[in-house]
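Troubleshooting log. The previous structure file for this entry was overwritten by mistake, so regenerating from the original sequence record. Sequence copied from the archived sheet and checked twice against the printout by T.R.
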Amino acid sequence: MAQPSRESFEYVRWFSHLDAQDVTSVGGKNASLGEMIQRLEEEGVRVPGGFATTADAYRRFVADNDLEDVIRKHVDDLHDGTEVAEVGAAIRDAFLDASMPAPLVEEFRAAYRRLSEHVGRDEIDVAVRSSATAEDMPEASFAGQQETFLNIRGEEATLEAIQRCYASLFTDRAIAYREEQGFDHLEVALSAGVQQMVRSDLAGAGVAFTLDTETGFPEVVTIDAAFGLGESVVSGEVNPDAYVVFKPLLDADGHRPIIAKDLGDKGKKIVYADDGADEPTRTVETSSQEQAGFVLDDDEILVLARWCAAIERHYERPMDIEWAKDGDTGELFIVQARPETVQSQRQSAEFATYRLEERGEVVCSGLAVGDAIATGTAIRLGSADEGDRFEDGAVLVTGMTDPDWVPIMKRAAAIVTDHGGRTAHAAIVSRELGLPAIVGTGDASEAIEDGQMVTVSCAEGEEGHIYDGELDFARDEVDLDALPEPATRIMMNMASPAAAFRWWRLPAKGIGLARIEFIINNHVEVHPLALTRFDELEDDDVRQRIEELTRGYADRTEFFVERLARGVARIAASQYPEPVIVRLSDFKTNEYADLLGGAGFEPDEANPMLGFRGASRYYSEHYRDGFALECRAMKMAREQIGLTNIKLMIPFVRTLEEADRVIEVLADNGLERGVDGLEIYMMAEIPSNVTLAEEFAERFDGFSIGSNDLTQLELGIDRDSDQLSGLFDEQDEGVTRRIAELLDKAHRHDRPVGICGQAPSDSEDFAAFLVEHGIDSMSLNPDSVVGVIERVAKVEQERAR
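Regenerated output below.
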């Protein structure tokens, strides 16, 4: 969409003549549109054309209608105790009853005609958006405080929409916000942006951020997408698609760094209303085909991510961006960009963790916003008009929120909604307020009783849970800048892709153990052989559930490969370029059997802990085609997505022959040790691994001690036995001698050795023992990292004396 080029108005400015210096004239939103048109078109960023009415136009409107006295009188009433709702309604009515001054009418009409002529139409449809002159500053975001009007067509309708924008400077929420921020109501002016509509009602639209909105992780672009106009995403009416793109690899040749693609249900969409309708837009149900498909394809996701990254580079700060896709032309557009104002304001050294100290019954679940926990009495509200029923410190439960809910939300301990994604209004405001929120639950308004005591937990990963009752929880604060830096590499254990970004601020140096069982169990759900041998499934219900899960995939195995690859990639991205050691699947047969479709493919073993597990599965004819899917996923994560910091680790390697066979199978599947920097580690968890450590060192690039299994097999104790739990001790001399022997043999062959377990965090003596014998790395659960860093640094200092 090209831009009109002439500039000949007193009260109108074309976007193409605006830049970031024009905030006082046209507000942050409109100045940003002009800045992008002027500075970013050469990077391919497309912005729809249009014009902005100036702050002087607003002031002329106020002056000619004697509205300043009206505003001052009612603001004085507000300070004398009159309710905000009464003050706001009175001022808005005065604005809407006023007359547009003739010079403004003439210019606004002429600008609309010129914009229509420029695109070759008599009357174009436009979006009319409010842009306050104090809006979208990093320290004071006015986003969502004023109104936007979509699908406006014709001179009269455009004039009316501009006047309604002026009135919206005094919505209840805008008045309350300015009071809190200390802005003078008479000093803030409003510019209306009149922008050619993108026909996203025929395609899709959404929101993007140039960081992770929950954790502040700065290396990603997060994109929410829904069919129809973008208002459905912003308002939280739908649960949108969610895409995550890793910025550092966006410009790498041949890489496609999409590290998450989650399909939203997208049950509704907002489209143009029929001609002659009272309202310009309407909400309709989406088709089953739309619900089963992604709004954007991979190429479009990557283009949009590159644009967002370019916008962030230009502004030199994290950005909150709205985008739209034109259904007529298939083109993507950026329709708004403003500074992100929550995570980017956090201090890097600020770090607090929450954890539940007890468990309870889960009432319902949804997307977790933030990482905090709160308890309170649940109060269900159907609309913001019921605000007088709400009690300070209660948990707000409702269908969805909009800016009218903000006064209530500020009084809440936590927020729970039925609908919405991570960029819905409830999510955005809860982040600004520092409140835990769970959105998109689907049924919270029905599942949670009014007056029920609940615990809202956002501290368990991407999925948040509402528990029945008041559960105990802990909050720990850490000053990361004050932590020492030990010589021993401290790494983390990680299983959940959703949780990986939560810990990016920790001074860990990579992931020492990434378990893919969690990803398979929670994000894939299907046994791999049920996909490679789908025709052998006899249970019709299982077949139907698998078909539902894999809808949209022509090849069902691609579902497994993509879900696993992107899950691993998200974990690897959180620590890039530090090493991330991915342990290939180590389910036991009973655990594999619990996967969807798995029962028919797994033997019934008396002792699965010592049975068909780990390396033995990978080369077995019974499972080779299932393992091939894992290999395809690892190739995709390393080669297509581009996360070459991924190293592979083989669990439960019983013999040298088995090691050779697994390495051969990996190579047959395109994962050859040494090619493209691929390193392959092995778990050291069987006594034979230590006895033959020098021979294994010729085959592998490093070792990771699995202390639980090593203790189990060294002492002959079932680690799950209650009767023998008192004998199970990783610090038993028999076990520690094995560990010392392994370290000695491995280091003779220049092979690094790590340990992935909690023993170093549970025992200072054990940590000291490992340091004394030259352990190269310790990998721990994230909540133990800070304590172990302090413990290991202390041991190292004592040894240096």
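DSSP finds 29 helices and 30 strands in the chain. Archived copy saved in two places this time.
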